[in-house]
Write a structure and sequence with these properties.
This protein has one domain: Exo-inulinase, domain 1 (Jelly Rolls, Sandwich), CATH 2.60.120.560. It has one helix at residues 110-113; strands spanning 14-16, 19-24, 27-32, 38-43, 49-60, 66-75, 78-85, 89-96, 99-108, 118-125, 128-133, 136-141, 150-156, 163-173. It is mostly beta strands.
């Protein structure tokens, strides 16, 4: 378990003109200041199958930004994302060789639209991917090309910038 109270617990931090990932007031925060941009903070764990759970809350909303989990990180061109959006949607997608591939298209959900804070959970493994919110399974899909890699938490924007999300109480488990 990581409650993000120790800034040396291993999560990647950054601060650029496009945004930041930082330990801040007992949370891992991600702020995105560029349009159509994703920032993640990763930690070096590479398990064949894993369940991640985290408390997530929007600190500064913009109406349609997205946030959630990254898994199977090989590099900036190869990773998988399981996420929700501020305006009530969820999605599972991946970048493979730098190409965007939707595994579960953006889908509206009353659970997501209810607003946070949320307890988010994700399963990543070669036998499937799954995203849950507050104990409700939102989506599951099999990606036969999934490759285990590092994991992380992310925030992203579309046209509106200035989005900030906070994560706390991160758990990583092997099923």
């Amino acid at each position: 378990m990581d409650d993000f109270s120790n800034p040396n617990s291993g999560w990647y931090t950054s601060n650029t003109s496009k945004g930041s990932a930082a330990y801040e007031a007992g949370e891992l925060t991600i702020e995105v200041m560029a349009p159509d941009y994703v920032i993640w903070s990763e930690v070096e764990y590479s398990l064949d199958e894993m369940v991640m759970v985290v408390d997530a809350r929007v600190i500064q909303g913009v109406g349609d930004a997205d946030f959630g989990f990254v898994c199977g990180i090989q590099d900036n061109d190869n990773f998988t994302v399981l996420e929700v959006s501020e305006d009530g949607y969820f999605s599972i997608w991946k970048y493979q060789a730098g190409e965007f591939i939707s595994l579960v298209d953006w889908t509206y959900s009353d659970e997501v639209a209810a607003g946070g804070p949320y307890v988010m959970a994700a399963y990543c493994g070669s036998d499937g991917l799954a995203l849950a919110l507050d104990g409700v399974l939102l989506a599951e899909v099999v990606d036969p090309d999934f490759v285990p890699g590092n994991i992380g938490l992310l925030g992203g924007t579309f046209e509106k910038t200035g989005f900030k999300v906070g994560f706390d109480n991160f758990f990583l488990m092997q099923p």
